[in-house]
Amino acid sequence: MPIESMSLIELAPFAAGLIVTGLVAGVLAGLLGVGGGIVIVPVLYHVFTLLGIDEAVRMHLAVGTSLGTIVLTSIRSVRAHAKKGAVDWDMLRSWALPILAGVVCGTLIAAWVSGVPVNSPPSTITPESRIISAVAVQIRMVSMNTPSACTKPCEEG
Q1: What is the domain range of residue 23?
Q2: Comparing C-alpha atoms, which of 12, 95, 9 is closest to residue 87?
């Protein structure tokens, strides 16, 4: 059923599901150090499926929505840290151009690669395969028996 024809009552279960997804993503991010997108993107993909969003743009919309929340969260985080004087503005300025250059280069490379046939183009990677990959990475991280890099206090320099 198209989202335009749905009432607020019909949309309420989707909203509740997204709130639960946000809570799960937050807990996983806090406990395991993974990005929330690992949970949010597959859920958004399936929500968009149920809402009748065209398959051609569904994954792009899910990833874009997740990235949009990252941008807003990052801006809020920088502002909160800046109020406490915990932002190194000189370092941030020194990274601005390299980051912009990386974005431009990454965009150009992605545009170039998208025209080349590859084994697994992004449009065929399912949300479930992303979850399986993420779980495999987490199992590997948990099973590694190596000490943390921060085993002793850092010296102030």
Answers
A1: 1-85
A2: 95
Alpha carbon distance 113, 29 (integer Å): 31
Find out whether 25 and 36 touch, Cβ atoms under 8 Å.
yes
Would you give per-residue pLDDT tens digits along the chain (157 residues)? 667 788 889 889 989 999 999 899 889 888 888 888 888 999 999 999 988 889 989 998 999 999 898 889 889 999 999 999 999 999 989 999 999 999 888 877 877 776 654 444 555 556 666 677 777 777 777 776 655 555 555 555 4
Residue that finishes a domain, picked among 44, 62, 85 = 85
Of 9, 8, 6, 41, the closest CA to residue 22 belongs to: 41
On whether residue 57 sits in a domain, the answer given is yes
Distance in angstroms (rounded) separating the CA atoms of residues 12 and 18: 10
Measured between alpha carbons, how far is 5 from 155 in angstroms, rounded to an integer? 60
Q: Please measure the distance between the N-terminal and C-terminal CA atoms of the chain and give it in whole angstroms.
A: 60
101 shares a domain with 50? no
pTM of the complete model beyond 0.85:
no
